[in-house]
Amino acid sequence: MADLQLRISEGNEPQPKLLWDSVWRPNEGVADWALAGNEPLNVGGLRAQQALHTAVILALFTDARMPEGHPLEYLVGDGDRRGYWGDGIDVRDDLGEAALGSLLWIFERAILTEEIRRWVEVVALEALAPLKQQGIAARIEAQAYAQQAFNRLDLHIQIYGRDGAQLYDQKFADLWAQTATAPRAPAFGPE
Fold first, then answer.
1. 72-80 contact pairs (CB < 8 A, 24+)
2. Is 130 helix (H, G, I), strand (E, B) or coil?
3. Backbone angles phi, psi at 3, to 5 degrees
4. Do the bridges between strand 166-172 and strand 152-160 make them parallel or antiparallel, or are there none, so unpaired?
5. What is the band of 42 on the pLDDT scale with cuts at 50, 70, 90?
6. What band does 34 get if pLDDT is binned at 50, 70 and 90?
7. Is 60 exposed, middle or buried (0-12, 13-18, 19+ CB in 10 A)?
């Protein structure tokens, strides 16, 4: 039987932030939790030093549910609208909360075109909009760069504070992974 260890000082001293850090592993296309290591107030816990990066990773790479009637609905070939299960439990509109995630997952089977590249930017900005609504950011920029010869799409995210200072600057490389041929895209909607 394993020994259980209680943190005796827990609750008596300042606690770390609860937004846990994630470690982005680009060559695997996944994020994983980062362990706290030797943080004296968080022994055995998860690291909490990069809350904004963690929020961006969760917003972009959690699968949002495809809404009925969305212009990109044609890309959901198998009928699975996905979505984060936690959104069905506790999303409080009265507190300004929104569903978590993005529709970036729908592009994995789409043909890489200029129109799709522009949609990736729109979808990324929609997913990151709660950061502006919550006052964390004053401006968010998303630029998608397509390299059609290599069937590759990279996404560059920049976030700025109210004073104009850049708070975040991250490039997500090789976001694109075409796995099948998709139906022809309808005309681009949002501008």
1. 72/103, 72/106, 72/119, 74/182, 74/183, 74/185, 74/186, 75/106, 75/107, 75/109, 75/110, 75/182, 75/183, 76/106, 77/109, 77/180, 77/182, 77/183
2. helix
3. -75, 140
4. antiparallel
5. low
6. low
7. buried
Distance from C-alpha of 84 to C-alpha of 107, rounded to nearest angstrom: 17
Signed CA dihedral, 136, 22, 158, 70: sign only: negative
> Within its chain, how far is the Cα of 49 from the centroid?
18
* Token pair for 40: 């004296």
What is the number of alpha carbons within 13 Å of residue 159 lying toward its C-beta?
18
Residue type, 67: P
- pLDDT tens for 173-189 read 765 543 334 344 444 44
Tell me how far CA of residue 22 lies from CA of 7, 43, 48, 132, 161, in angstroms. 24, 17, 9, 21, 22
Mean pLDDT within 6-19: 44
Q: What residues are paired with 46 via a beta bridge?
A: 35
Helices (H), the chain: 51-61, 114-133
Q: pLDDT tens across 61-103, in order?
A: 889 999 999 999 989 878 888 887 777 777 777 776 778 899 9
- Tokens found for residue 74: 């044609």
Domains and CATH numbers, the chain: 63-85+92-172 (3.10.450)
